[in-house]
């Protein structure tokens, strides 16, 4: 089957739609790549395949090869210079020579080996982005199995993240039946990251997903509480739009790790939708305890209105996002839980 080249398989699950599974999957993939791992993303949300849009490669098409389909490349393995401290930007009024500025910049940056990232989604196969997928259960099941058996992931792929639709229906059953019936892939299925939002109605549905994991024997690597607060970029006031702490309470109730709370960051939305590099007014605090932004990073109104994509790759621009340090910590916990075993 097509998974023999994959070393570790991680599912991204939720019993509730609209909680941001694809957003979480995208940031987990980018962060794993920035840690030097080669990563694949398989999107089996067949009726709402959004992964191509998140990675900015909607116009890409799948290449057929002997034995199956070649995943679409988001970026190859490469080396990237990133700031040593990605959470705080400081400014100085002291004048420096060009040589001194270059030396300071070199000291503030470090080279990172970025692992290759590729993905596969039904979105690459549909003739138009707005096409509706009107399939009964058996056809969905067949498509999931084809994705699992026919995608030619590169040899030695470190992590395959599987973005799933909400609920516990046909796609999930087909996915687990296919993975668990083979001894090799069953051993490489490390577990699931479960996504929720803080409010009670979402937590109630996501509890069903945790029960699904218990009944099917899927290990829960941790719970991520998404959309946990919105920090206004103008006044820095945090508003808990969807309440607070529901995901952490649920994780404690089920005895599974709590990976962290992820706030809403409008700059990340602009990065995905318009390709803009994240910038923040000086003093903005999106993630508690870390300050981002600086006077040199602000843009005037005319520039803010443009939809021209900023130069650079998605992964490179993501290092300027306030959520990157947060996801670096979340991914660190996931890797520790994977290495710890059952």
TrEMBL record:
<dbReference type="InterPro" id="IPR027417">
    <property type="entry name" value="P-loop_NTPase"/>
</dbReference>
<dbReference type="GO" id="GO:0016787">
    <property type="term" value="F:hydrolase activity"/>
</dbReference>
<keyword id="KW-0378">Hydrolase</keyword>
<keyword id="KW-0963">Cytoplasm</keyword>
<feature type="region of interest" description="Disordered">
    <location>
        <begin position="290"/>
        <end position="311"/>
    </location>
</feature>
<protein>
    <submittedName>
        <fullName>P-loop containing nucleoside triphosphate hydrolase protein</fullName>
    </submittedName>
</protein>
<dbReference type="Pfam" id="PF10609">
    <property type="entry name" value="ParA"/>
</dbReference>
<feature type="binding site">
    <location>
        <position position="232"/>
    </location>
    <ligand>
        <name>[4Fe-4S] cluster</name>
    </ligand>
</feature>
<dbReference type="InterPro" id="IPR033756">
    <property type="entry name" value="YlxH/NBP35"/>
</dbReference>
<keyword id="KW-0547">Nucleotide-binding</keyword>
<keyword id="KW-0004">4Fe-4S</keyword>
<feature type="region of interest" description="Disordered">
    <location>
        <begin position="79"/>
        <end position="111"/>
    </location>
</feature>
<feature type="binding site">
    <location>
        <position position="235"/>
    </location>
    <ligand>
        <name>[4Fe-4S] cluster</name>
    </ligand>
</feature>
<dbReference type="InterPro" id="IPR028600">
    <property type="entry name" value="NUBP2/Cfd1_eukaryotes"/>
</dbReference>
<keyword id="KW-0067">ATP-binding</keyword>
<keyword id="KW-0411">Iron-sulfur</keyword>
<keyword id="KW-0479">Metal-binding</keyword>
<comment type="function">
    <text>Component of the cytosolic iron-sulfur (Fe/S) protein assembly (CIA) machinery. Required for maturation of extramitochondrial Fe-S proteins. The NBP35-CFD1 heterotetramer forms a Fe-S scaffold complex, mediating the de novo assembly of an Fe-S cluster and its transfer to target apoproteins.</text>
</comment>
<comment type="similarity">
    <text>Belongs to the Mrp/NBP35 ATP-binding proteins family. NUBP2/CFD1 subfamily.</text>
</comment>
<keyword id="KW-0408">Iron</keyword>
<feature type="binding site">
    <location>
        <begin position="15"/>
        <end position="22"/>
    </location>
    <ligand>
        <name>ATP</name>
    </ligand>
</feature>
<dbReference type="InterPro" id="IPR019591">
    <property type="entry name" value="Mrp/NBP35_ATP-bd"/>
</dbReference>
């Amino acid at each position: 089957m097509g998974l023999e080249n994959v070393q570790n398989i991680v599912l991204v699950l939720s019993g509730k739609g609209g909680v941001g599974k694809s957003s979480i999957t995208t940031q987990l993939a980018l962060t794993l790549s920035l840690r030097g791992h080669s990563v694949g993303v398989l999107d089996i949300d067949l009726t709402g395949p959004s992964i191509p849009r998140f990675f900015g490669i909607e116009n890409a098409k799948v290449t057929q090869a002997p034995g199956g389909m070649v995943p679409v490349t988001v970026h190859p393995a490469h080396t990237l210079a990133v700031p040593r401290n990605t959470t705080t930007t400081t400014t100085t009024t002291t004048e420096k020579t060009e040589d001194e500025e270059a030396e300071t910049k070199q000291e503030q940056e470090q080279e990172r080996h970025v692992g290759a990232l590729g993905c596969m989604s039904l979105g690459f196969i549909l003739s138009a982005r707005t096409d509706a997928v009107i399939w009964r259960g058996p056809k969905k099941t067949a498509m999931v199995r084809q994705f699992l058996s026919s995608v030619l992931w590169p040899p030695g792929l470190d992590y395959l993240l599987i973005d799933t639709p909400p609920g516990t229906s046909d796609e999930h059953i087909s996915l687990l039946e296919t993975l668990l019936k083979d001894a090799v892939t069953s051993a490489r299925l490390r577990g699931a990251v479960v996504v929720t939002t803080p409010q009670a109605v979402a937590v109630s549905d996501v509890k069903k997903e945790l029960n699904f994991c218990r009944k099917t024997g899927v290990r829960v690597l941790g719970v991520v509480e998404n959309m946990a607060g919105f920090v206004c970029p103008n006044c820095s006031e945090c508003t808990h739009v969807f309440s607070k702490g529901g995901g952490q309470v649920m994780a404690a109730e089920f005895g599974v790790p709590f990976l962290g709370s992820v706030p809403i960051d409008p700059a990340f939305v602009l990065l995905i939708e318009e390709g803009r590099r994240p910038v923040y007014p000086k003093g903005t605090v999106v993630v508690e305890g870390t300050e981002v932004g600086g006077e040199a990073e602000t843009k005037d109104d005319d520039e803010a209105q443009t939809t021209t994509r900023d130069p650079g790759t998605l992964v490179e621009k993501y290092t300027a996002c306030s959520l990157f340090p947060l996801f670096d910590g979340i991914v660190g916990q996931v890797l520790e839980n994977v290495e710890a075993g059952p």
